[in-house]
Amino acid sequence: MKRGADRAVYDREAIRSILDAGIIAHVGAATEDGPIVLPMVYGVRHDELLLHGSVANAMMRAGRGFDVCVTVTIVDGLVVARTPLHNSMNYRSVVVRGTATVIAGTDEKAAALQVINDHIAPIWDTARPPSDIDLKQTMVLTMPLTESSAKVRDGDPIDEPEDLELDHWAGVVPLVTAWGAPYPAADLRDGVAMPAAVEALGGTNAHPLDDSV
User: Fold for domain 5-157?
Assistant: First the structure.
């Protein structure tokens, strides 16, 4: 990392903690119609990042066997400086680059999909298992975390020394992301219990991305 190198983080555990706390990855690849970036749910297993999508997805098809770039960003707050050009954000961000390969075997694909699903909420075992058709219509890609780095900003605004005595407010506005209370689907049959994992999300009313690294 060249720009903002003082905020670079290469420690594998720190990178993993950001990936564990994030929810959405933006995945970029070059397609026949030009570059495309799509938001996707992801999972992390050992030293690999897992992605999934429809077999008809142009980005997924383009990523097979080619280099892709994945970014995960968590915004922790707005940094308000004494001058607008010094305004910033506190954030944690990870960039992963690598060659994406397809997970082909049925059992291997299902296991990878469970990792992706359980990254958000561990409800795999309380839902209907995916059918053979579901699995055939879904592509799962894996890419190594070998080429990955993080960038983290935390703390107060960094103002010019001569601005510190000015009568302009400076500080931080924290951004907190939380799950709301779950509610049933309109077509849910009476008597169907809410999975404990879903109930726990609403009960704590907070997602792990509220935790600081």
Answer: Pnp Oxidase; Chain A (2.30.110)
